[in-house]
Amino acid sequence: MESYPHLADHVSVRVPSGARRTRRPETADGRTIERPRQIETVREVEAQEPLIDVVPRERSDRLNRAVNLTLGVIALAILSPFFVLVAIAIKLTSRGPIFYTQTRVGIDRRGRRELAIRERRLQDLGGAAFTIYKFRSMYVNAEGKSGAVWATVNDPRATPLGRFMRKFRVDEWPQLINVVRGDMNIVGPRPERPSLFADLREGIPQYRFRQRVKPGITGWAQINQCYDACVDDVRRKVQYDLEYLRRQGLVEDLRIMTMTVPVMLFGQKGW
């Protein structure tokens, strides 16, 4: 929220040799189920190119915080009746908790002296770690055996209700709590979990620049591209995110919020 030049093609994805072709399983209504694919991380840079620094456009942190806090509180108040309905639906349709929480990597304040005083970390995660909130859209322990895998169309890890929520980005609504708490903005690059972030910043040199602003619920990348299904998708999204950094501001944020509405209402860019 689930066009600019592409990042230089210097990330390689290894495909196991001798892999068999197997018939894809189908659901009762004939839809093909794509099995989750293991996330293949990248650790080699085949052709090192000069790293171009990306400096976010200057903006008032206080005004930005005030706008996000105000909009976050208003949105939570408006959506609160729907939160109750979604919570009931989740409990009635699958076993497990209503909310799903996970550690994600947030803003890296160390590059800004006025903000670095609040940054105290024992290890370099690439940004301040925080707990993200989502409506649970998958079965309990869905990645217990497979580990972290790319999202797929008709993902078997997702519950029937979860597939609906992911398509219309309903599962992202609880992140308004993160906005009110100050972990996130409404608009910004999507936050990633620490393990994947560590691998992606090694394979995609400009990836770490995304952390120079707070992550968001929606963003320029989210309204232009679907969920990540491979490393190439991440590389393209990085370019969208960096373009946002160069243009960020109140007007730009309001424009992206407006463009997010049809993405949610009509299930665009979602699975």
What's the gist of this structure?
The protein has 271 residues and is an alpha+beta fold.
Structure description:
It is built from seven helices and six strands, in the order E-H-E-H-E-E-H-H-E-H-E-H-H. By secondary structure, it is of the alpha+beta class. Helix 1 (61-93) packs antiparallel against helix 4 (175-181). It starts with 36 loop residues before the first strand and ends in a 6-residue tail after the last helix. Residues 1-16 and 43-47 have low confidence and may be disordered.
Produce the secondary structure layout.
Elements: E1 37-38, H1 61-93, E2 99-105, H2 113-116, E3 129-135, E4 149-150, H3 160-167, H4 175-181, E5 185-187, H5 194-203, E6 216-218, H6 231-247, H7 250-265
Parallel strand pairs: 5-6
Antiparallel strand pairs: 1-4, 2-3
Helix pairs in contact: 1-4
Strand percentage lies at 5-15%
Q: How many discrete structural domains?
A: 1
Count of helical stretches: 7
What distance separates the N and C termini? 12 Å
Please, what is the average pLDDT? 83
| SSE pattern, N- to C-terminal | EHEHEEHHEHEHH
Stretches where pLDDT is under 50 for at least 5 consecutive residues are: 1-16, 43-47
What would the keywords be for this entry?
two-stranded antiparallel sheet; 271 residues; 6 strands; globular
